[in-house]
Amino acid sequence: MEAQAPAASSRRWVALFFIGLAQLMLILDATVVNIALPSIQRDLGISDADRQWVITAYSLAFGSLLLLGGRIADSVGRKRTFLIALVGFTAASALGGAAQNAEMLLAARALQGAFGALLQPSALSLLSVTFTEQKDRAKAFGIWGGITAAGGAIGLLAGGALTEYLDWRWCLYVNIPIAVVAAIGGYAILTDSRREDKARFDIPGVVLVTAGLVSIVYATSRAEADGWGSAKVTGLLAAGAVLLAAFFFVESRVRQPLLPLRVITDRTRGGAYFAVALSVIGMFGAFLFMTYYLQVVKGYSPVKTGVGFLPMAVAVLVSAAGLTSRLMPKLPPRTLIVPGMLVCAAGMLWMQTLDPTTSYASGVLVAQLLLGLGSGLIMPPAMNYATHGVAMNDMGVASATVNTSQQVGGSLGTALLNTIATSATADYIASHGRTPAIAKQAVVEGFSTAGAWAAGIIIVGALIVAAVMNTPRPQPATAEDAKLIPEPNPLPAHP
C-alpha cells in the first residue's frame, strides 16, 4: 500500500490538470466573446438592442441551472456528469462557431450555458473529493483559485488576438480542443463518485429556483436599457425574490431538497459564498471599465487591451498559487479573505486617479495589481471552504451554490455598476457640454464613480465576512480527520 501512495498522489495532480482545463474553458468563455462582440454584431447583422443577448443567453442558462447541475452531479455521478457536460459544451461551441444567423448563435450560447451549469459544479466537486489531505487541498485550491480569477484576463487577451488575427468564430472554436483534451484525460484519470442513497429530484424546487434566478439575471441584463426603476426591471426583481422565497420554503419541507438548507446556513460556508458574490463585483467591474478605458479613452487595439490585462493574471497566480496556498493550512480563512477584499477595494479606489492622460503604468497597472493580489487571497480559501463540512451526498450542490453566488453576484454587480457609470457620464456631459475631450473625461468620471461604489460594497462585505466566518485555524490533520467531508462510508476520493 505504501508503495502505491506516490502513484496515487501523482494521479491526483494529473486529475487536477484536466479538471483545471475544464474550469479555464468556462472562465475563458465568460469573457472571450466580449471583445469579439462588435465583430459578431457586424457579421451576423445583430441590432444594438439584441446584441446583449449574445452574453445574456449564456449567463441566463448558466446561472439559473447551476443548482440543478450540482444535484445531477451528486446523483448521476460526478465523473459521468463532467464528461457528458464536456461533450455537450464542445458540440454547442462548434454550433456557435458555425452560426449563420443571430438565432443560431443565441441558441448555441444558451446550450453552452446549460452544459456549463453541469460542468462547473461537477468539476469543483471532483476537486473537493479528490484532494482531502489538508496540505494538498490547499495547494489544489490555490491553483483552482488562480485559474478562476486569472481566466477572465486571459480570456480578454485570447478574445482580442483571435478576433484581430483570425475571426470571431475562433472565440468559440477554441473551446473544442480544450474540451477534447479535458474529456480524454478525465475519462482516463478521474474516479467517479455519487450519492450512496437513491436520489429523488426535487421538481418543485427546480422549477422555483430556475424561474427565480432567470427573473433576477434577466432583470439585471435589462437594467441598463430600461432603467432600474422601470416596471419591467422592478417587476422581474420582485418576481425573482418571491420565487426564491418560495423555493427556500419548499426546501425546508421536502424530504430530499435540491438545496439542503444546512448547506447555506453554516457560517463558514455562508461567509465563503458571500465573499465570492461580493468580490466578483470588483473583478467584473474592473474588466468592464478597464476594457472600455483602454479601448475608448486610450485608443488601444483589442490585442493591446488583452496584453494590458496580463499583469492582473500574473498577480492572481502569484497571490493564489504562490502565497495563499502556503498560508491556507496555517491561518483561519477570514484572515486571508478579509484582507483580500480590502486590497480589491483599494484597487477599485485607485481608479479615482485615472484621467484621459494617465499613463498605463501609474493608472491601470496599479489597479490591476491590487485587484489581482486581492483576488488571489479571496478565491482559493473561499472555494475551499465553500464545501467545508459538507457530506459527500451534498458535495455537488455545495459546489453549485458557490458558483451560483459568483454568477448572480457578477451579473447584479455588473449591471448595477454599469448603470451608475452611465448615469455619472451623462450627468458630466450635461453639466460640461459635449466635445471629444469632454466625452472622454465623462467616461472616466463614470468609471471612477462606479469604482468608488464597488469599493464601498466590497468593504462592507469584508466587515460582514469578518463577523460571520468564525472558522478557527486549521488543525494539522487530514481533511477526513477534521471531518471536512463527514461521510460514514465515503467513496474513494482518488484512484
From TrEMBL:
A single GO molecular function, which one?
A: transmembrane transporter activity
The alphabetized UniProt keywords are: Cell membrane, Membrane, Transmembrane, Transmembrane helix, Transport
Compartments, as annotated in UniProt: Cell membrane
GO CC terms, sorted: plasma membrane
Residue span of region Disordered: 475-495
Q: Domain of life here?
A: Bacteria
- Keyword Nuclease on entry: no
The residues the entry assigns to the signal sequence are none
Membrane topology reported for the UniProt record: Multi-pass membrane protein
- All copies of the Major facilitator superfamily (MFS) profile domain together span 15-473
This protein is called what? MFS transporter
